Amino acid sequence: MVEILSNTILEVKNLRKEFGGLVAVKDVSFSVEAGEFIGLIGPNGCGKSTTFNCISGLLKQTSGKVEIFGEDASEMRPDEIQNLGFTRTFQHTRLWREMTVVENLLVPPRNQFKPNLIRALFQPHTRDAEKQRLIRAYEVLDQLEVPHMAHNMASELSGGQSKLVDIGRSMMGDPQLLLLDEPVAGVAGPLANKIFNNLRRLVDETGISVLIIEHNMDFILRQGVDRIVVMNEGEVLMMGTPEEVRSNRAVIEAYLGAAGDENIGGENE
Ligand SMILES: Nc1ncnc2c1ncn2[C@@H]1O[C@H](COP(=O)(O)OP(=O)(O)OP(=O)(O)O)[C@@H](O)[C@H]1O
Ligand SMILES: [Mg+2]
Fold first, then answer.
1. Nearest residue by C-alpha to atom 3 in ligand 1
2. What is the pLDDT of residues 47-98, one digit of tens each?
């Protein structure tokens, strides 16, 4: 049997992004393999969201490269990148407040509105497709362990529940890679743990990959991710398993320097 040597689905190579005179991302390189759950962490303003914006095609990098499944994606539009199986959430959750949770899951991303939509609506297979999407929506709510929320209005949800529905929306299209921008910021501890546990299970059961931005080092070190990419001032400070990150001198110094000892090496050490 021939062994598949590379399962790399995303490769970021020497990514740099400038906004006028400001260098938001200086030099970032890392890769994501199929079936990996990776944390991207770093202090406020270090360039995490900008990195996501370049990967998902919303921003064009100043230099460097983004490769998806080995193909140069640097010139691709966001919808082309999404069609390759990359979906993302944004740091600030945006749901349709006057719709139910399940309706929110059914709202298709903009690029799915093709010019032939009206014609397609009257063809029988489209109704089948709608039915499949509804089945998928309930499946996603099951995977996130919130089937009971299906008919709640989005406006009634707590901040944490809204984040969960937002993750659900990104899961609707059977993605290969989920890019989640701080999905547990401001979410209470137990729900934040639950979100991470569900993502871990999703990765293990389906083989998709998750790249998740988080700013709390202490929190992510406990969450069972496979690897952590640590950013600082637009660069990758180091990457490795949670154990390697925990004991890395540069990380300890940067975090102790930046934020006192609240973020790393705290309790239970
Ligand atoms: N569209 C933009 N125009 C100008 N400057 C920007 C833009 N987007 C981001 N920046 C700047 O680039 C730097 C990196 O921002 P970015 O949002 O990527 O950081 P971050 O690591 O996601 O921070 P946070 O933890 O606060 O979300 C910051 O100094 C920010 O002000
Ligand atoms: Mg950000």
1. 19
2. 999 999 999 999 999 999 999 999 999 999 999 999 999 999 998 888 999 9
Q: Which residues contact 171 (CB under 8 A, 6 or more apart)?
A: 87, 140, 143, 144, 178, 202
Give the architecture-level CATH label for domain 8-98+173-262.
3-Layer(aba) Sandwich (3.40)
Compute how many other C-beta atoms are within 10 angstroms of the C-beta atom of residue 138.
Answer: 13
Which atom of ligand 1 approaches the CA of 19 most closely? 4
CA distance 158 to 182: 16
Q: Which residues contact 71 (CB under 8 A, 6 or more apart)?
A: none
pTM: 0.87
Which of 15, 19, 44, 236 gets mutated to test ligand 1 (max ligand atoms within 8 A of its CB)? Answer: 19
Tell me the residue type at 14: N
